[in-house]
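task queued by scheduler; priority normal; single chain, no ligands, no partner chains; default sampling; output format set to structure tokens
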Amino acid sequence: MAETPRQLPLDLPHEQALGREDYLVGRSNRAAYELLERWPDWPSPVIMLAGPVGSGKSHLVEAWRQDTGAAVIAAADLTEGYVEALVAAGAVAVEDAHNGINETALFHLLNAARQADVRVLITSRTWPASWNLRLPDLMSRLRAATPVEIEEPDDDLLRQVLVKLFADRQLAVEPSVVEYLVVRMERSLGVACQVVERLDREALAGRVKITRPLAGRVLETVYN
């Protein structure tokens, strides 16, 4: 029997649901979710949110932004010229501080936010101690921040995330395939995103359904 010809998969955009109602809460991220839900009644004016790649930090920030109208800026883009406009929004999120940050600009932002009684959320894959900061006053401000961590997901949350990722791509997948993946894959939301993306591409290229054998082959490509 002739092989089914493979189809060249196109990188068609798919819309990821990033509202608060779409954020899946489990043991690994409940503390972070509940802390942001308490805004503006935070234990300190600054929250330091740390978690591994793909752990859902950006989704949580987006859900918080939708609720609060917060200004959101990438840490690498932060300059002193943005400080006034950011604080004027009434709440501020600075994302991915592990990528590097203008220390003077962040220090001025934290000072201006404190004077205006504005809350600041900073996200990173690592804690400030590893950022090689040079400004003692900035280090002092960050030490006073409330730390909250998103950990790798447990099986139940990973299962929910896989179902959501498939649904975001409008893919119909049998529950047995999801269970197969949960048992065999790394407990990482970042890996879950990779696996679902590759399964989507392979199924489209081969014009086949997503099955357990296909999931097994894709998992091998993720780890090799």
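post-processing summary
- The longest strand covers residues 119-124.
- Residues 45 and 114 are 7 Å apart (CA to CA).
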